[in-house]
């Protein structure tokens, strides 16, 4: 759990008392490839910290196609944040794309700790600002103004992630068909 605490402390350093309280609500879980951590239409009851593996976050369109919004690699915090904040069922599925080891902590107990420990609340605020505002904004702009080819080139730059994804995941993430992805790859390579 030391990597978990290290990642938390990168956003805001926690006191020993807060770390102990946080670790007391955490459990380690293992998911096999293709296991669903959260099903669309269900309430998000847990936050996750991804120790190893790869997780995808997707919704399903009217035709039954999976539309991937984001992928999470090791040392990432994963949750259906909008579902938790709105206290509504999730619009997204969270799936293990590889065998995964996670640290899991319940939303209700964690939210209680946020109210009790000021430093944990500051971690949470800094995390949300950095990952759901600062990181998300360029993604939203790229989806609106950049072509699938430009977004593909950006994805290629993240070799560690790109090499782990299946072609249908990449096509879905880019909002194109696998055939269109093949054409883009031929143009570039």
Automatic annotation (TrEMBL):
- Tell me which domain of life the UniProt entry assigns to the organism this sequence originates from: Bacteria
Q: Which is one Pfam family of this protein?
A: cNMP_binding
Identification of the protein by name: Crp/Fnr family transcriptional regulator
Q: Where are the transmembrane segments?
A: none
Domain Cyclic nucleotide-binding, chain residue ranges per copy: 10-114
Q: Which organism is it from?
A: Chryseobacterium viscerum
Gene3D superfamilies attached to this UniProt entry = Jelly Rolls (2.60.120.10)
Check the record and name the InterPro entries matching this protein: cNMP-bd_dom, cNMP-bd_dom_sf, RmlC-like_jellyroll
Q: What is the lineage of its organism?
A: Bacteria, Pseudomonadati, Bacteroidota, Flavobacteriia, Flavobacteriales
